[in-house]
Design a protein that fits this description.
With about 250 residues, the chain is an alpha+beta fold. The protein is built from five helices and eleven strands.
């Protein structure tokens, strides 16, 4: 199994309608964005993540958007389609480097002190999943605990796929959701590819990274009982991501 290093690109939306457009597209509340990257998503009509994004704001009318390189051209086409009559300009994308500041995974236009492998390892430790072309349309935001990271706002109003996302929150809860695990790889080399399942189980890999020759750590979506039956060690996530994914009464 070959698992290449992820790459990411950033583009800018600038204009009087940029905020309004993004507010009708992404799961977070765009009016609350600041100068640090916020994880969020654009979901499809089935309420599954089509584009995993990080957004930050530069002033009233300018926003930076980061996504995986293999999703960028499709994201640009999506923005052109839905923003055809909106007043903003979209820049050409540029490569942006994954880096870790303190213990927090983030991005930088300067790659001098960036290490992709370190970013991947720290991202898995902190639940900072990344969506690539292989995993588009597979996961719901709540399954990936995006709402526990400030990436889903249930009071902001309508956006694409909002009805499904809200229904899951107010009327049910995902039965399978994000966990961090460690697995012996039985000498198979690389960590499993995103979107794959582990063996014959229904445990679905979101992201994984090899920690030594025969062990990998992964973010997976699974039911708790599936993990109990699997040959995997469950590792801790940050406290906010250890809470129940169900709506608090």
């Amino acid at each position: 199994m070959t698992n290449s290093l992820p790459t990411f690109e950033q583009m800018t939306l600038t204009g009087s309608d940029a905020e309004k457009f993004l507010q009708a597209q992404v799961t977070c509340d765009v009016t609350k964005l600041g100068l640090s990257y916020t994880p969020t998503a654009i979901v499809n009509l089935k309420g599954r993540i089509q584009f995993g994004l990080w957004l930050k704001r530069h002033g009233e009318e300018q926003f930076e958007i980061v996504t995986a390189s293999d999703c960028m051209s499709e994201l640009q086409a999506h923005i052109k389609k839905y923003g055809a009559f909106s007043k903003f300009e979209m820049s050409d994308p540029d490569r942006v480097s994954p880096c870790v500041v303190g213990d927090e995974p983030t991005f930088s236009v300067d790659d001098a002190n960036c290490n992709v492998e370190h970013w991947m390892t720290q991202s898995i430790r902190t639940g900072n999943y990344w969506i690539t072309a292989q995993t588009q349309g597979l996961f719901q935001p709540q399954e990936l605990r995006l709402h526990q990271r400030g990436g889903v706002d249930y009071d902001k109003g309508c956006y694409l796929g909002q009805e499904v996302v809200a229904r899951i929150y107010f009327k049910s809860a995902p039965k399978a959701f994000l966990h961090r695990i460690q697995v012996k790889n039985q000498g198979q080399g690389d960590a499993p590819m995103p979107g794959n399942t582990l063996g014959d189980s229904k445990i679905q890999v979101v992201n994984a990274v090899a920690t030594d020759d025969d062990t990998f750590e992964a973010l997976v979506v699974a039911r708790p009982e599936q993990l109990a039956d699997a040959d995997a060690m469950i590792l801790e996530l940050p406290p906010a991501l250890q809470a129940s994914v169900a709506r608090e009464a």
